[in-house]
Structures are given as C-alpha cells and as structure tokens.
C-alpha cells in the first residue's frame, strides 16, 4: 500500500476516533490524550521540526547557487512576491463574498456580554523588513527565525555561485548534507500515518462537538471559501500559466496536503512539500528550494480567508455594517499584513486583530471563533502549502519553456 493511502486511512480513522472521543467522558479522553494521542502526535511533529531548519538552510543555499545568476534570483523573487500578494487579495475577495452571501453571524445566537480577548501587537512593517538581515546568523538558525535563515542562506548561495570553482568543495558538502536530509525525511514519513491519526484525533476530541454547534455556518463559510480558492484560483493558475492539468497537479501534491492538514503547520510540512513538489510534480530543485520556504513564511491565503470571513462574521454578530471603504481597507490591510507580520507567533490572530482595529470592530469578537479555529487551521494550512507549490510549479514550468524556446532558436 502506498504511503498516500496509509496517510488517508490514518486521517479518516483519526476523524472517526476524534468524533467518538468528543462524546466520551473526560475520564476516558484525558488519559488517552495525555499518554497516547498527545505523545505520538508531538513526537511526530518534533521529528519533522527537527529537520526543518537544516533542510531550509541547505536547500536555499543549493537553490540559490544552482540559479547561478543573482539577477535571475531577483526576478524569481519578484515573481514569487507578486503571485503571493495577488492570490492573497483574491482569497480575501472570495472570502468576503461568501461571508456576505451566507451571513454566518446571523445564523445563531451569540452571547457577547462576557467575551474577552487580549490582542498582541504586530511589529511595525519597517522593523520586520530590517530584521530580515540577521545580526547573528547562528542565533537565527537556533531560534528558527525563518526570514533571517532564508536571507543568510541566499547570501551563502550567491557567494558560492560567484566564487565557482574556488568553493566547489563546500558546494559538494551542501549536496551531501541535502542527500542526508532527504534520507531522514523519507524515514520520518514512514511514521506519517500514525502521526496524522494521533494529531487529528486529539484535535477533534479536544475541540468537542459542543463548540462546533453554534459556529456551523461560520465553519461552512470558511471551508467553502477555501475550496473555491483552491478549485478556481489555483486551478486557473496551473492551467493558464503553468499550462498543465490541475487534477494531475492536485493528485501529485496530495501527500503534502494531507500532512499539512494533520500538522496545521506550513513550516513543519515544508520538508515533505518540497520533496513532493520536486519528485511528483517535476518542480526544479533550485526554484522549489527558494519559493516554497519563502511561501511557508509569508504566503497566507488560508489565513486571509479566515480573516475575511471572521471580520464579516464579527460585524454581523455585533450588528455593525461595513461600507465599501471598509471592505477595501480589509483587503489592503490583510494583504500587506501577510508580509509585515511574517514569522510572528500566532500571526493569524494578530493579523485579524489588525484588520478589526482598522475597521473599528471589537477585537474581543476573536474569542468567538477561537473554539473552532484549531480545526479550521488544518484546512488553512493545506491550502497555504498548496499555494506555495503552485507558485513554484508555474515559475519552474515557465523557466523550462523559456529554456526550450532558446534552444530551439
């Protein structure tokens, strides 16, 4: 049986088990979660996170050095940022449209009298941009500061590309390190079905069906928007720009999507999503190694969808109307915030607080959605990593077609 099928079985059994545990008394759920589900899921996550920083650093160094021309790297960087910002804006528009059609905030009775939520402030965007360059690269690697790791790796890769034969020994060392890390990824992935089962069962069992009841329409709105964005926006990008079959793409990338669903972390899924994109979709390693790690940090289409739906939901709950200027402000704020708050812990809720403040809605309303946010985060992560792979794929295919055209002439 293929690994993909095993992961699907693990996910399905995890969902069934989680639903069953949500009905079980706490005397049964707590020991199971504490001594079985929690440890198994956390060990699997730790194994993946153990190799995230090394594989991102090594992959970007090799990818940058493999591109050779720094100007080409800059061009790919501009294309990547443009794709991520445009798709984020589209995700927000679709999310707002779905929320206004379904009106999730009017579908139930919500008690806002005792709702409390303390929001964290995001750093100023200029501080985020300045802090991309690490003062201490070793500290950046040890703390897992992904933007700083990416920046440092790019500098090393550019240096290797320019120095060429002088540093061929170091380049080969990075290639050998990459081979070792890929071996570790393959070994860890054998545990993926068990990790996926434990993580899903624990998440659903912990959330409980009681928390889902009054939030059904909100969840439907978010899930519907996620599906529409993936089926329409990404499919059109794959078909129109990548000149390929969306069905073939999604089928090839499904193992990474399923793992993203279970881990709820773009960074944790990164080693697998890069491996799947390169091996199943034929994305060039030099492009995948640059585009996907950057996307795991700043590409947040799924989070943008949550913000759009949640903003309209909270406005409806508090009986506040949003004007056209408010809608435009939501789209602009959330799109820019996706880059300005990159790498900040709890970035999704921080960005939502920024959006709510911008349109004068009570930040305390965030407390209404926290109960189901963990479940929706699994789907958002699957969409986010898919967007990263779509971007890498269309840039890789475009690059390949240009090379073929140049050879033909």
Descriptive account of the structure:
With 409 residues, the protein is mostly helical. The protein has helices at residues 3-23, 26-67, 70-102, 125-130, 137-143, 146-163, 168-189, 192-212, 216-240, 246-263, 266-280, 285-298, 301-317, 324-340, 347-358, 366-408. The longest helix is centred in the last third of the chain and has 43 residues, at 366-408. The chain is globular. This is Dicarboxylate/amino acid:cation symporter. Its main location: membrane.
Radius of gyration: 22 Å
Shape: globular
Distance between the termini: 46 Å
Mean model confidence by pLDDT:
86
How do the helices and strands follow one another from N- to C-terminus? HHHHHHHHHHHHHHHH
Strand content: under 5%
Number of helices: 16
Largest sheet: none
Give the class from helix and strand content and strand pairing.
mainly alpha
Number of strands: 0
Percent helix, as a range, is: over 70%
Secondary structure layout:
Elements: H1 3-23, H2 26-67, H3 70-102, H4 125-130, H5 137-143, H6 146-163, H7 168-189, H8 192-212, H9 216-240, H10 246-263, H11 266-280, H12 285-298, H13 301-317, H14 324-340, H15 347-358, H16 366-408
Helix pairs in contact: 1-8, 1-10, 2-6, 2-7, 2-8, 2-11, 2-12, 3-9, 3-12, 3-13, 3-14, 3-16, 8-10, 8-16, 9-13, 9-16, 10-11, 10-16, 11-12, 11-16, 12-16, 13-14, 13-15, 13-16, 14-15
